[in-house]
Amino acid sequence: MNSCPAADTIQPVLDDFSFYISFFQDSSATASPSPPPSSSDMPKGRRRRDTGAATAGNERRRKRRKIANLLTSIASIDVQHESQRRESDDDWELSLEENHHQKAEAVLDHYCRLEESLTALENDAGTLRSKRIRLTASASAASASAEGEGEADAARGIGGHQQRRLWVKDRSQAWWDRCNHPDFPEAEFRLAFRMGRATFDMICEKLGSAVAKEDTTLRAAIPVRQRVAVCIWRLATGEPLRLVSKRFGLGISTCHKLVLEVCNAIKTLLMPRFLQWPDDDDATQAKSRFEAPSGIPNVIGSMYTTHIPIIAPKVSVASYFNRRHTERNQKTSYSITVQGVVDPDGVFTDVCIGWPGSMHDDQVLEESALYRRAATGILKNTWIVGSSGYPLMDWMLVPYTHQNLTWTQHAFNEKIGEVQRIAREAFTRLKGRWTCLQKRTEVKLLDLPVVIGACCVLHNICERRKEEMESGLEYELVDDEMVPENSIRSVSASQARDNIAHNLLHHGLAGTAFF
Question: Is this model's pTM higher than 0.90 or not?
Answer without folding.
Answer: no
